[in-house]
Amino acid sequence: MRLVTAIVQPTMLTHVQIALAQHGIAGMTVTECSGYARQRGHREVYRGAEFVIDFIAKAKIEVLVEDAEAEAVIDVISAAARTGEVGDGKVWSTPVDEVVRIRTGERGSAAV
């Protein structure tokens, strides 16, 4: 099993959700988060006062998939979230040793 994690622009979340559903992914977890990388935040002016915004709003998507499916899911997310601008985000996968569905006690692939 692999946990595919993506950090994307919040405006691209619906695009990613639709693309994953079309690919056959039945579930995902989404978390609102903030951060920065190369774009390093930005400045905004509100009522004449200038503010430095250090962290930019992002959406974190987590999808649990079989090992063989991880690369395809990464490709689907990357294509759906890509705008070509700085700040599009990142996608990575990590190994998962054990999964248990709490309600039924199922383990491994049956729990996904």
Automatic annotation (TrEMBL):
A GO molecular function held by the record: ATP binding
PROSITE patterns in the cross-refs: PII_GLNB_DOM
SUPFAM superfamilies: GlnB-like (SSF54913)
Biological process (GO), any one: regulation of nitrogen utilization
One GO cellular component term: cytosol
Domain of life of the native organism: Bacteria
UniProt xrefs under InterPro entries: N-reg_PII, N-reg_PII-like_a/b, N-reg_PII/ATP_PRibTrfase_C
SMART domains on file: P-II (SM00938)
PANTHER family assigned: NITROGEN REGULATORY PROTEIN P-II, NITROGEN REGULATORY PROTEIN P-II HOMOLOG
Protein name as annotated: P-II family nitrogen regulator
Organism: Tessaracoccus flavescens
